[in-house]
Amino acid sequence: MADIRPFRALRYNTATETLSAVICPPYDVISPQREASLLAHDLHNFIRIEYAKTLPGDDESCNRYTRALAHLQEWLRDEVLKQDEKPAYYLHEHTYSYGGEKVVRRGLFARVRLEEWDKMVVRPHERTMAGPKKDRIKLIGTLEADTSPVFGLYQDDGGSVGSVLNQVSQWPEAIEFSGEPGEYHRLWVITDLEAVAAIQRAFIDKPVYIADGHHRYESSLAYRNERLALDPKLSADAAVNFVMMSLTDMADPGLLILPTHRLIKGLPKNLLYILPERLAEYFNVESLDSIGESWNKVKDLMKESSSRFFIYGLNGKEFLSLTVKDQTKVERFMPSGHTATYRGMDVSLVDHVVLEDILGMNPMDEERIAYDHDLDSTVARVNSGEFQFAFILKPVKPETIKDISDAKDRMPRKSTYFYPKLPSGIVVYRLRD
């Protein structure tokens, strides 16, 4: 189904550049402190292209996008970046640590033909916001390049893709470099004609599911449509008809999806007082006692597949476990047009039943709601008094993403967090033929 092809990537010249010094996180997770650190670290750090600084006095002719273009042109001229001579797939092994264990996630950099959502060739699972797309469209149009990959998933039930990648991973020509603290990367450039053909054949009947990077995908699609409107005779194989993606098997043992816990502040005392009683109208509420006694039990319950979420800090250092009493009773709070999978998700119950109905809040009220992907950190932020309490959610499983996407549904905002984020700067896709 998906048209997945090799491409001639722009890559750092490893004869002159140290990759560990020049790659950077994707634009949407770079904090101001990390930005300053990356800018000071190396004159050729990719942040200067991926997320160039906004400066006072910027205008249409001089701004963050034109500065990114100037760096790109300079680095190409000085051969800091070079374009590969042959089209290639790029096998990427991303090693990281989580929970005290070393984990490896495998991805394949490729260019994927852009398709409108209704064709169900590339399938989303969440909605996007307009602001981030405007930024990415401007960057793509100015640079004529995809600077960071969309993270996609596929099912490899027959193992056809995996068998080829297993062979490639035995090749000795890997490029090895470190990344963020505790992270390590290996990259293989696949130009062998038999391997390239085998990978293309293996993807013929597979849709692609977007894991992370919905904004980047929709920005690329919008830019393609702009170009097509200007030139209706644009070749179907023109570079702008494709987007750079990193593709990972849904069954990859290194695929880690973290939950997005909700931390709450700014609620009046009277609302906090009646909250336990209101919760009991819709949920079975079980106290798991103090944090020391219940910590392991919470972590065990978070592994189960049934609908269950937790609240921490409503009654001191106590965890509450909540399950639905009567599904028909909570159904009336769910937005119309959503699937049973959506209606049964923990995040849907929290957003629509508790936040919207019981607390009268907008689930996107970021003045009173913060998000954290780490359980220890979430608990600590409540204990410190920064937040009044927190909703602790279970991680979403890959099969839930597939079910939602296959049904043309979308999850609530901030339902998934894929860890770790793919770095930017390993490969760049140029939208020039």
Please characterize this protein's 3D structure.
- The chain is of the alpha+beta class.
- It folds into two domains: 4-256 and 419-430, no CATH class; 260-394, Conserved hypothetical protein from pyrococcus furiosus pfu- 392566-001, domain 2, CATH 3.30.1760.
- The chain is 34% helix and 24% strand.
- The chain is built from 15 helices and 21 strands.
- The chain has helices at residues 19-22, 32-41, 47-50, 64-77, 130-143, 160-168, 193-202, 214-230, 269-282, 291-301, 327-331, 340-343, 346-358, 375-383, 398-406, and strands spanning 4-5, 10-12, 81-83, 89-98, 101-113, 122-123, 145-146, 150-154, 175-178, 184-190, 208-212, 242-249, 256-258, 261-264, 283-290, 309-312, 318-324, 369-372, 389-392, 417-419, 429-430.
- Strands 1, 4, 5, 6, 8, 9, 10, 11 and 12 form a nine-stranded mixed beta sheet that branches. It has a six-stranded antiparallel beta sheet with strand order 15-17-16-19-14-18. A two-stranded antiparallel sheet has the order 2-3.
- A hairpin with a 2-residue loop joins strand 4 and strand 5.
- Helix 5 (130-143) crosses helix 8 (214-230).
- The longest helix has 17 residues, at 214-230.
- InterPro entries: UCP033563.
